[in-house]
Amino acid sequence: MDRLVVAPDRSQAVGCRVGPDGAEKLRCVIITPTQPAARALTFPSRGSTFHGYLALPDGAGPHPGVVVIHEAFGLTDNIRDITRRFAAEGYVALAVDLFTGHSRAVCMAGLMSSMLTGREPSSINDLSAAMDHLIAQPEVDAERVGAIGFCMGGGFAIAWGRRDRRLRAIAPFYGTNPRPLEAVRRMCPVVGSYPGKDFTARSGRKLDARLAQLGIARDIKIYPGTRHSFFNDTGKSYDADAAKDAWRRTLEFFAEHVRSTR
């Protein structure tokens, strides 16, 4: 006999399982609210046309905005889902496909070269162009915009956050720091989340210490026992407890530094 268990979100559905005696099977159904309006779009940058994914909250606005920066896998369904989750929280969210028109391998090779030489990745210009497009939307309050990035995108968020004064806060997840680290002296507020069992944990600790010295608002947390991409609920390293806490911290930090009016 099946018994239906209704879970309002993915984190509460984790415990659903088949009983050890096999007498009762638990089936989980994740009930989600109405999905935010979302659409694919394009925007210009550096003489090319880039693709993106825009999700809109209910209401006329103006709403705060968030630029969502993907990891090395590109603009995946997971990144689109995160974009919609921000819209459900009242943000106009734009996810950018930084690999538009190029192979992933070529883009990653360029990134690695930039990291080794300390040069700023050219993708930072594309993120600035994405910001231009986002704040041009009538639903967006141009004075209240932040960014979130994962892995490669987390490193981009840090590099971008130190130079674009339009960003009121950033949320890097398992991202690396720019070289030299002193470049963060003009950083906007940061809420960072790092896995304990990953090389980026060292970056998180160094960033936390430097931002503390500079007096820049930050909330940097290392999650012991977690691995790279712990926030990606479609991957093998997903950690439900850490992901839930990191999302809560991100929303609370953004509520203070992005959503609020100055």
Summarize the structure.
The protein is of the alpha/beta class.
Overview of this structure, please?
The protein is α/β, with parallel strands linked by helices and 262 residues long. It folds into 2 domains: 1-32, no CATH class; 33-259, 3-Layer(aba) Sandwich (Rossmann fold). Helix content is 32%, strand content 28%. An 8-stranded mixed β-sheet has the order 3-4-6-5-7-8-9-10, with helices on both faces. Strands 1-2 form a two-stranded parallel sheet. Helix 3 packs across helix 4. It is globular, with a radius of gyration of 19 Å. The chain starts with a strand and ends with a helix. Residues 1-20 and 22-32 have low confidence and may be disordered.
Q: List segments where confidence is low: pLDDT < 50 over at least 5 consecutive residues.
A: 1-20, 22-32
Mean pLDDT: 86
Number of beta strands? 10
How many discrete domains? 2
Please give the order of strands in the largest beta sheet.
3-4-6-5-7-8-9-10
**Share of residues in strands:** 25-35%
Q: Please identify, by name, the CATH architecture of the largest domain.
A: 3-Layer(aba) Sandwich
For this structure, the CATH topology of the largest domain is Rossmann fold
Major sheet: size, sense and barrel closure? 8 strands, mixed
- By helix and strand content, what is the structural category? alpha/beta
CATH fourth-tier homologous superfamily of the largest domain: Alpha/Beta hydrolase fold, catalytic domain
Compute the gyration radius: what is it? Answer: 19 Å
How helix-rich are the residues, as a percent range? 25-40%
Measure the end-to-end span.
57 Å
Specify the CATH class of the largest domain: Alpha Beta
Helical run tally: 6
H/E element sequence: EEEEEHEHHEHEEHEH
Shape: globular
